[in-house]
Amino acid sequence: MGDFFGCGNYRIIKPFEAMRDHGLVDGKLQTNLLSVPYLERYKPDSIVFQRQITPEYHQWATKIAQHNSAFKVFELDDYLPNIPLKNHHRKDFGNDVLKMVRKSLSFADRFVVSTAPLAEAFAGMHPDIVVRKNCLSLDWWGNLQSLRHQSKKPRVGWAGGSSHTGDLEMIFDVVKAFADRVDWVFFGMCPPKLRPYVKEFHLGVEIGRYPAKLASLNLDLALAPVEDNAFNVCKSNLRLLEYGACAVPVICSDVECYRDDLHVTRVKNRFKDWHEAILMHLNDPDTSEKQGKALYEAVMRDFTLNEVKAREWAAAWLP
């Protein structure tokens, strides 16, 4: 697996735990490349590789192919060839990332991605591309309690990782315009230009504490702005799922990654549209609350790692 953070948990650790807990698979999670003798002793039916695109991996995969016949799955949940300029992870990948991905895929029997647009972006690079959408694990997200009306002003906020500078700077004028009417609450990151208008800024926490921390913010309304670019088009609706697990109503950008059946308010990335949508929610808190509850019900029904979803993941990972 690629990491122990968000991607590692949503795409590898939690799906594996769901499959294991439902008696579908047994296995081992590793962050390092295993030796040939170790693999021979373990004799796996399938090996899943997350985001492995380095020359070291290619050398290892070449060697392993000569000695091991296990079914090999390559897992990826971001469009790495087009990371936005303001995303600080961009520096972690070289200019030849597409070439490196293509090389990694040459060793894989199956390519698993998180969204249909991501599968389309990589169409032609592998003959067996399977989409497995992100889902929430019930041990983290199943019993959260997020309260409403906990401040004199509505608590409106954003939560996420540290790679969303461009997305958040895009709504600077909106944040500034509502600074006197709402308590802005940011969790995980807050660009410096927004800080003067933000009532609360909560530093990021390790991933296992993230769900409970998000719920504890007691948001009355959450925002999910994303720039309309190739990278975000290919992203999943994970932010909506996380807010939904807390029953928080959401206003999000009308970008492909958020165009699904979930009950949220979608807006074009213009000040006027964001401004009007926020006013609509603030002026009708009862309807806004109902939208949050409807989102919660949809997430719990369709986007949790239950046995059905575990079997779908197993079908993608196994020969």
Chart the SSEs and their pairings.
Layout: H1 6-21, H2 36-42, E1 46-50, H3 55-65, E2 71-76, H4 97-105, E3 110-113, H5 116-121, E4 129-131, H6 138-141, E5 155-159, H7 165-169, H8 172-177, E6 183-188, E7 200-203, H9 210-216, E8 221-224, H10 230-233, H11 238-245, E9 250-253, E10 265-267, H12 271-283, H13 285-302, H14 307-317
Parallel strand pairs: 1-2, 2-3, 3-4, 5-6, 5-8, 6-7, 8-9, 9-10
Written description of the protein model:
- This protein is 39% helix and 14% strand.
- The chain is of the alpha/beta class and 319 residues long.
- The chain has helices at residues 6-21, 36-42, 55-65, 97-105, 116-121, 138-141, 165-169, 172-177, 210-216, 230-233, 238-245, 271-283, 285-302, 307-317; strands spanning 46-50, 71-76, 110-113, 129-131, 155-159, 183-188, 200-203, 221-224, 250-253, 265-267.
- The model has no long low-confidence stretch (mean pLDDT 93).
- The chain folds into two domains: 6-135 and 305-317, no CATH class; 139-302, Glycogen Phosphorylase B (Rossmann fold, 3-Layer(aba) Sandwich), CATH 3.40.50.
- The chain is elongated, with a radius of gyration of 21 Å.
- It starts with 5 loop residues before the first helix and ends with a helix.
- It has a six-stranded parallel β-sheet, sandwiched between helices. It has a four-stranded parallel β-sheet with strand order 1-2-3-4.
